[in-house]
Amino acid sequence: MSEKVSKTKYNKFYYKPLPSFLTIKPSAIEGLGLYATDTIKENTDLGMSHIKVPLVFGYIRTPLGGFFNHDDDANCYIQEDLDWDDYRVFHVYTLRDIDIGEELTLNYYIDQE
Prior knowledge:
four-stranded mixed beta sheet
């Protein structure tokens, strides 16, 4: 008895936890961190890091938002990109060009709400 299994086709609009030019690996700062696998230009939108929805207490952190380590001289920042009826979405942007192999960081104190 054999059944044919259909495979889901790739759709570029499906959610991806990390952009293709980032990877997670051990960090000299703390635990694991995000690293560039390709050169990333200044002001690049790396994607959604945190979401607040009315039915959830607090914020939901995405995989992208979970691996930034703190640095006083950070190379990225968080910006609120959507605020609609208590639904809020935050994205992370690069402050400058990022080199291959460089860890991406946030300044937690400046980026606090």
